[in-house]
Amino acid sequence: MSTPAKRVAFHTLGCKLNFSETATISRDFLRHGFEKVDYRDTADIYVLNTCSVTENADKEARKLIRQAKRRNPNSAIAVIGCYAQLKPNDIAAIDGVDLVLGAEEKFNLLNHLDAIDLNGGTKVIQSDIDHVHKFATSYSSGERTRSFLKIQDGCDYTCSFCTIPLARGEGRSDTISNTLKVAKEVAETAAREIVLTGVNIGDFGKGSQESFFDLIQELDKLNGIDRIRISSIEPNLLTNEIIEFCASSQKFMPHFHVPLQSGSDKILSAMRRRYKRNLYEERVAKIKSVNPDACIGVDVIVGFPGETDDDFLDTYNFLNELEISYLHVFTYSERANTDAIEMGGIISNEKRAQRSKMLHILSDKKRRYFHDQFIGKIRPILFETMKNGKILGHTDNYIQVQVDGNPELINTIHSLKLTLNNGAVVDGEL
After folding, report:
1. What percentage of the chain carries pLDDT values higher than 90?
2. Does domain 133-253 correspond to CATH entry 3.40.30.10?
3. Which end of the chain is more exposed for a tag (fewer CB within 10 A), N or C?
4. Segments making up each domain of the chain, as ranges
5. Nearest one of 180, 153, 134, 161 to 20, comparing CA atoms
6. How far is CA 184 from each of CA 40, 149, 197, rounded to the nearest angstrom?
7. How far apart are the C-alpha atoms of 75 and 7, rounded to whole Å?
């Protein structure tokens, strides 16, 4: 009689980069004979991939650790990711944690499992972030229609609010040749779309003769993938040649996500961002000039130290006038070991919440206006999932559409007519 396979469960907090890394680690476990189960099930090993961008992410990590131990008191719990790199001893002090792996060691999780002693205290393996130089390629495989391909890691920028350089180290990437090999692996899966992800993807090829622009030109030739999206790219790295190339490509989708963070030059300087609002305005104008149908998403932070009412109104009015499609609104969160935490001019939580609400309302208006422009028009859609009897997917320019249809349509691309704007989701007909 064979021994039952050990059960392993994964949970991921934070960005799509984390999800791509978790997927790669989980495939390693499957290759070694483990059975993968849901994090809500009983498992022998629980793996939590953490984020530490906000205080809420820290709290959520602690809650998930406690929940896992309640499900199986005899389980081993391993914590990896950004929170594990930044605060390994804090995690080790949480009851039930057996293994903490920093940025350098998380992809070696399997090799460290033998070191776990459920009765011998928590094992912490963490290198100084200055010594983290290796690049580990990864991609997600959980979503049949879409795969997030990690092309870059770390960041050399020193934004005053951000812990990511402390958690992930210096900016680094693989060669174009090796990146293409992994992209071909993805193309052999069921995925129809690749999303290029990383911490600062526009910095791809730093220190070499290769560049992000070189990479996308090669990826454009990739067989077996119909769509490629650029997840997020800094405005100072989004060059005119990238914008023009994407507009001419059949494979790269007319969709850009470009972080702004603030529409006030004063606040941008305090954040140590590498551009001013006029450059951001130029990038948006360039995108719309070569592809008027393009979707443009924006990251913005409210409540940064020193952000006066006038500074916030500068941001609000700037965004209101820009030809953008939606916002991702983040409320400033104090993070240890950042320069921003030492700044004066702390904004009350009430005012942060008020500003966040105003920008969320603006985002809804922007999204509705953008969707309105395509009602009655035909766009290609990649069907992705079923919900409440409707089949849902995204157009090339990232409009979520729902139609009456057969589940067999999932993971296929069809042209359809957009008929009714419901705000976040648009009705369509085949």
Report:
1. 73
2. no
3. N
4. 7-131, 133-253, 378-429
5. 153
6. 33, 11, 16
7. 10
